[in-house]
UniProtKB/TrEMBL annotation:
<dbReference type="GO" id="GO:0045766">
    <property type="term" value="P:positive regulation of angiogenesis"/>
</dbReference>
<keyword id="KW-0732">Signal</keyword>
<feature type="signal peptide">
    <location>
        <begin position="1"/>
        <end position="30"/>
    </location>
</feature>
<dbReference type="Pfam" id="PF10572">
    <property type="entry name" value="UPF0556"/>
</dbReference>
<dbReference type="InterPro" id="IPR018887">
    <property type="entry name" value="MYDGF"/>
</dbReference>
<dbReference type="GO" id="GO:0001938">
    <property type="term" value="P:positive regulation of endothelial cell proliferation"/>
</dbReference>
<protein>
    <submittedName>
        <fullName>MYDGF factor</fullName>
    </submittedName>
</protein>
<dbReference type="GO" id="GO:0005615">
    <property type="term" value="C:extracellular space"/>
</dbReference>
Length: 175
């Protein structure tokens, strides 16, 4: 039997890295006691319609996550933001979602920005899992990911947002 080639091994790692980062982010988002050494922090906030730009931020150690948005229609919706750290404090996660699953507001813009880390994985959803509902991701063309932010793509975003998940790696240099 032949050993796997370097190319197929790289492809396997490339496929596993996002899965591993998502797993770590999900563990951090699952709540206290789920990842040894991690101290997730969850906060509730209102997403307010009216067309004005609003922001909500959470910090954990040297890291922070800021959600900036503008929305129209309906009334205030209760949302949550959770930030967490991996065991070695090298992986920072930020999850922003509406616990009821589906937002009925029309988002005209959104941006989730991390400080102190570079994004390794990010995903935006039009519907968050709740009850019998499943996560429904936005189409890739609707949002963009940079080293430090996830944001709507002007002219492509279809105004639906219910969840954002970010896994970021510390940008600190190790000695």
């Amino acid at each position: 039997m032949a050993a796997p080639s370097g190319r197929s091994c790289r492809r396997a790692w490339a496929a596993l890295v996002p899965v591993a980062l998502l797993y770590l982010a999900a563990r951090a988002a699952a709540g206290p006691g789920t990842a040894p050494g991690a101290t997730p922090s969850t906060a509730e906030f209102d997403v307010r319609p009216g067309g004005e730009v609003h922001s909500f931020s959470r910090s954990l150690g040297d890291f922070s996550c800021t959600f900036t948005y503008s929305a129209q229609g309906g009334t205030n919706e209760q949302w949550q933001m959770q930030v967490g750290l991996g065991e070695d404090s090298g992986l920072f996660s930020c999850s922003i979602w509406r616990p009821q699953g589906k937002s009925y507001l029309f988002f005209t813009q959104f941006k989730a920005e991390v400080k102190g880390a570079k994004i390794e994985y990010a995903m935006a959803y039009s519907q968050a899992a709740a009850g019998a509902l499943s996560d429904i991701p936005l189409k890739q063309e609707e949002f963009e990911v940079s080293e430090t932010a996830v944001s709507h793509r002007e002219g492509r975003f279809r105004f639906e947002l219910s969840k954002l998940v970010i896994a970021a790696k510390s940008s600190r240099d190790e000695l």
